[in-house]
Amino acid sequence: MSISQALNTDDTKANTKKGHISKIFNYEINLNYLIIIVTLYLVATANIGFFAQVLSIYPFSTNIGFIVSITGLLFGLMWLLFQLLCYRPIAKPVLIAMVMIAAVCSYFTDGYGTIFDSSMLINSLQTDQAEAMGLMAPSFFIRVVLLGVIPAIIIAKIRIKRLPLRRALWQRAVTLILSIALIAVCLLPFGDQYATFFRQHKVVRSYTNPITPIYSVIKLGTDYVDELRRPDTLILHATDAKRITPVTSTSKVKPKLMVFVVGETVRADHISLNGYQRETMPLLASQPDIYSFNNATSCGTSTAYSVPCMFSYADRKDYDASSADYNENVLDTLHKQGVNVVWRDNNSSSKGVADRVTFEDYKTSDVNPSCDGECRDIGMLNGFDKLVKSDVPAKDTLILLHQMGNHGPAYYQRYPKEFEEYQPVCMTNELSKCDDQSVINGYDNAIRYTDYFLNNVINTLKAYEQDYDVVMVYISDHGESLGENNIYLHGLPYSIAPDAQKQVPVIVWSPTGNGIDGNSMDKSSLASMIDQPVSHDFITPTLLGFFGITTDEVKAAPTFFKTVN
After folding, report:
1. Residues 469, 475, 480: CA angle, nearest 5 degrees
2. Which distant-in-sequence residues (6+ apart) come within 8 Å of 479 by Cβ?
3. CA 38 to CA 36: how far, in whole Å?
4. Domains along the sequence of the chain with CATH
5. Bridge pairing between strands 159-160 and 534-535
6. Among candidate residues 270, 286, 267, the one with its CA nearest the CA of residue 278
7. Is the pLDDT of residue 518 over 50?
8. What is the dihedral of CA 487, 488, 494, 498, to 10 degrees?
9. Range scoring the smallest mean pLDDT among 122-131, 475-484, 551-560
């Protein structure tokens, strides 16, 4: 073969090769198909760290169905997200950005266990050049080129098929419905496992790429906007508030003492005082002067939402969680009007409610004398006498006790062993591994411990009846699902949450002496209200009324009981 023939042969091969590449890049692809291909690619290449975390908790050999489900769920969520972001004029830039973000972030997630939450993004922005270069290894560039740059080039070169508008809209609608259906199909059969997974393994979710980095960027932006909108000073409420001095037939008026117990995760239909077949509150049932409300609803379905809402000046329908931190609440008003307000907490925190009053943390054995691996609610009564009689002369006092209560899913940890009345008990936080009855048994045992705690609160208050107008109020922040319709725990959007997450117990103890000669409790109004619909909205006007404080902001607002002044 001559040199010229050899050159011609090489040229022919080169042209053939170029022709094949050109044919690939000249191929027109439906945008919906391209989105599916990119989604599958990212699930497979950018989420190795995520699946490693999942498999460390749920071994594949015993959780095949759940692993398949969670893979389908991740694909469905990403598919839905990309469909919402990708429209023909911007589809390629969006998909290229997703591929590049995933390639970079997954390198650090897989290699270093890095989670790209908002804090990590801030840290990355503040990293100097020397620190950044210290993270750059040859493997980083190889991975980014192979998994990011090359796929990005292919996406950039490939042609997207043009479709008539009506057909394009129809296809987009179908694919959106299919992605939502896929998410539902993956979620519903494993609702119990997902309830535990989403609550107990929040960190694992943060390993998803590129969902977590995208979410974190959006959150960082919204947080910045919210900070710009935040007022420089606290928004004041009840600025016209004033105390009313009771008119009595004697010269002496007792100061008022209320213990307000903020319950945790207790649903109304598991309270024996409300007709539940099990004796979950036998001690309160034996106490005189107990009033249990039968139809009370919460403000929200989670502690973070409900607790600030409970003490706000806004009704549930008007409450804005994003602005709660810079609005005064009823505790601020009580404090300004001279009431001694003390918040004792054995839960996660007061969620900002007690930021401007006395706050005491009872989650450690340094303060709480009743800790046996977990600090018990009963420890919050330690030093009660000193707390009440710290002022001379005695003054109106509101003591708020924020329980650990029935915080799930590890209900078996919420009570000492001697309160295990109902057996067998689910002894794991993986609720899907237990039958529903054992889950309910643990939950009901925890309520029996709350019964013991509340009974001790009442007995503690009885010692002060001669010197104070004493009252105990117990209200749970939200309810709990225990497997009904395969739903567990709480936190569903209020509009679709079952009643089990919204119906809460409200229990008031008011001794017989209240309501006469200067004491502020109208017992007849209290008895008449227990069968009426009530809600967390009643809390703020009730507290103000009990302590004799008036303000136009809650004028004529409904209360749990009337006051006598």
Report:
1. 165
2. 265, 266, 267, 268, 298, 301, 490, 499, 500, 501, 502, 503, 504
3. 6
4. 16-227 (no CATH), 256-554 (3.40.720.10)
5. unpaired
6. 270
7. no
8. 50
9. 122-131
Q: What angle do CA 135, 141, 143 make, to 5 degrees?
A: 110
Nearest-5° angle of CA 44, CA 46, CA 48?
A: 75
113 conformational bin, left if phi > 0, alpha if psi -120 to 50, beta if neither? left
**pLDDT bracket for residue 492 (50, 70, 90):** confident
Q: Could you tell me which of 287, 189, 263, 329 has the C-alpha nearest to residue 503?
A: 263
Distance CA 323, CA 231 (A): 10
Q: Which among 150, 148, 169, 166 has a CA at the least distance from the CA of 158?
A: 150
Cβ contact 234:373 at 8 Å: no
Residue 424: pLDDT band with limits 50, 70, 90 = very high
- State what percent of residues in the chain have pLDDT above 90: 61
Q: What is the 3-state secondary structure (H, E, C) of 537-548?
A: HHHHHHHHHHCC
- Biggest alpha carbon–alpha carbon distance for the chain: 128
pLDDT in tens, 459-468: 999 999 888 9
Report the length, in residues, of the chain.
Answer: 565
Q: What is the pLDDT of residues 327-341, one digit of tens each?
A: 999 999 999 999 999
Distances (CA, A) of 304 to 314, 324, 352, 441, 504: 16, 11, 9, 26, 16
Token pair recorded at residue 262: 């903020």
pLDDT one-digit tens code per residue, 363-394: 999 999 999 989 999 999 999 988 887 666 77
Phi and psi at 107, nearest 5°, equal -60, -45
Per-residue buried b or exposed e for 400-434, using 16+ beta carbons within 10 Å of the residue's own CB: bbbbbbbbbbbbbebbeeebbbbeebbebbbbbeb
